[in-house]
């Protein structure tokens, strides 16, 4: 039965490239009718969440080994090998099953939709699926079979847990196994024979005895140890693993709700689905009020800004590694609702959670057989890492932590409310991670300007070949993806030294220089510097740096770069947002709608709309100072949002020290500005606001460079940039920055490297 049509229905039109899930969908997924009264933005309720979890499990179990120890999903193997990938299939789906079962106190309605019959020997057979025993019984049988002879090359045995680097992936999966066992203890662990429990403990203790990767991996032994202690099997080894993990976490805390993922400056979605999730959930399950008092407020602080990192269509920001985990981005939101450590109203939390879940389901994240595909909307190789295997996307199961929240909780009973990204235009600076968020309510787009996250280890060198498009770019969004490494980079500033044609620099290690935003969110800025890294065998230029500042207001971005130490004649190339030409958007992409696709009927945004579907398709880049228009660059490898994209570009030349080394451009993502409205670097008054800028277009910033300073102005205010050292000074406005409100000149922000 399909949902009834009604005025304002948010379901997409068939020709906009989306794939709405039907209520008469295949056997692996059966959704209840949408509830537009309770959930006016997404139509989703708790029943939809349960149905999606059931369908995902039903589909995945068709690929289990006879005793259920390994789930060998179809696809390219990860660098860890097929057996490790099979364990990954077991462990990550077990996490979803555990959240689902614990949310109903062990009751398995209809064995989670499993129907009578026998499991087919051929996973590809029509109608095949897991049957007979209940869901947790099958995971119990798999645990018994997998731990019987770890390391043996047979049909069922699990690989042993070893250290990193090498064969360390089973350590990651041990955390999911341990957490699943902890959540389902009364119905699974307590029902096992003692011999099986002893074998499981012996296998899990491998996580306590080998070296993790130097990042969030240290929380996997912590999670294993927490489970062992919860079932009376704790000792000095488990206590040491917990103490070690929490101690390292303290060293990674940077403030403003953010941890670094290890000793470097990697800030990404791992904050929500790992660095906050594991310690807070451990404390919650252990009823450890001391730990909750320490880590709960940090989670609340994280959610205060993280809520703005979802677009009006439900999309999380496409930024950082492991993006194939998709709606796991909502795990921290679910955890906040579960523990009460959240600033978000229940209706906002559910809107974010259901918006993210539905965003991906409507865009091909599940294939025709009900399996999560390795990619973003659908399959997408450039989204993956070498550790990604066929079952890796099932870390998305972490979002089902929402099912731990009781059905009568306001998370499920309060009406949905608009997401933060659907409100007024807003800028939010996060100085600790060096990020600047920019949202526009008219199209629901959220952009992230990166002046602090690089994922370069402190002890590592900077190699051109290791540039990572998921961290190196200056800007990311909920409606566009970075171009692939083998194509021209988007949102990038590159240098080309004299006599080295075609050898453009990369951005690797990022040094944040500061960030601030107006108290009312009206505007903000962030700054950083980096050392341009060139291909090998080229000349080494000492003391070569690029200082960069992004100033945002509304949809506008003024990007300012100062090149220091470059020889005369060095070429500069600045690129903007990668967007698809009109013929390439929509269903032809095979990956859902590209930016600019037309929305379905109805006045709301709703999570069924494509990324930025109300005018996101145009990205613009205009020269302001020191640059001139260049031919757009083609990126045939495309992005996660479109199979073929074009990248706008500007070029210039370093003319020497002082103002000649500064360049500036105006960028935007969203609806195109009025024809003929070009922001100029000349003709501006003392406050940076050009004569004749009136009406709606007056919000468009104007830039002026005089006496070694660069002014970015808009009606009623602006900022003044000076260099040596880099100083950002708000001026003549009602909102002057985080220091408060003023009608005169705001206090300057002076940022000095080191």
TrEMBL record:
Boundaries of every DUF2264 domain copy: 45-417
Biased composition (Low complexity): 116-125, 732-746
Chain spans, region Disordered: 107-133, 145-170, 574-619, 725-754
InterPro entries, A to Z: DUF2264_N, UCP014753
Pfam families assigned: DUF2264
PANTHER family: LINALOOL DEHYDRATASE_ISOMERASE DOMAIN-CONTAINING PROTEIN
Protein name (database record): DUF2264 domain-containing protein
